[in-house]
Amino acid sequence: MVYCAKCGQKLDEAFNFCPKCGTRTETGRSAGVAEPWEAMRKAFQTAGEEMREAFRKAGEEMRKAFMEARRETQAPRTSKTVSCPKCGASNPIGARFCGECGKPLS
Length: 106
What we know:
By secondary structure, this protein is mainly α. The chain contains two helices and four strands. It has a two-stranded antiparallel sheet with strand order 1-2. A two-stranded antiparallel sheet has the order 3-4.
């Protein structure tokens, strides 16, 4: 007859865990049966590794986006204009009326 090493409960020899206290038996250890917390630890470890990789990728994408934004803000700006349909004068983008003749630009 087999007894639990922790609580002394009488056990069937085939049990991997004590039904009274949940301790893994010698049979369970010999069979390589994992404790429930071991599976949870592994799951948290895997999740941590996946999160670390996701944050690494996100950081790299953010770095690229900031570098692109820096290039765009430091690039020489070309002054874009719109021509007046009436007199042909150049006017800044967004102007509603011509600065030369005062006619509507649209």
